[in-house]
Amino acid sequence: MGNFGYLQKKIDAQNLRKSGKSYKEIIALLHIPKSTVSDWCKDITLTKQQQEKLYKCKKVGALKGSFIASQNKRNRRIILTKKLFEEGRSLVVNVSNESSFVAGLAFYASEGTKIDKGCCFSNSDPNIIRFMIRWFRICWKVPNNKFHGSIWLHEGLSESSAIKYWSQLTKIPKTQFYKTYIAKDKSKSRKIRKNKHQFGVFSFYIHDISLLRKIMGGIDGILNQA
To answer: How many other C-beta atoms lie within 10 A of the C-beta of residue 153?
Structure first.
């Protein structure tokens, strides 16, 4: 580059800086190194308005970069979670009847009632409810007419939709459902549930004290072997 071309670029760079352009913008327009731009423009003072404009642009860029980094991190976490989930699932491809029986005892030990009045199991997870219904039907030969359902539902949610959902999932007729418990809205309370299950928490009852005692015996047997 000749002396004239060099001088012209310096003048152009300074004029661009005086107009409020950032170093990054000047570099892109004139194709010159950052160190050169910095040296040529170091004595140029921007107006307060120009400084505020550049600060906002820089802040937006930083926020954008932070958002992209966060999204990339989230995507990596989703991929890893799915991978680990599939690895765990591959360990139980062929579940024996004995394993299912023991799993049912473990679920009941965790979420079932132990009061000597009969069996009751509650959960909001439809997959767990479905499993436990099948567990009672297959492992304990409980007929369908012995099951009774009940729903714990937040105020403002559809009771009819909840009853229809759980009845279809469990194959328990609606006529065998007890009255739904509606939990009052506590928006003014400090203890506010952030996650309200659309179809509530489902409980099913089997009024058979003998069955409960057998289940408790099974749980005790597992705990003592462990």
So the answer is: 22
